[in-house]
Amino acid sequence: MELTQSILKSRLHYEPETGIFTWLVNHHSVKAATVAGSANGNGYIHIGVSGKNTQAHRLAFLYMTGEFPPDEIDHINGARNDNRWSNLRPVSRAENNKNSKRRHDNTSGVTGVSWCKTRKRWAAHIQVDGKPVNLGRFTDFFEAVSARKLAERKYNFHPNHGRSA
Question: What is the pTM of this model?
Answer without folding.
Answer: 0.85
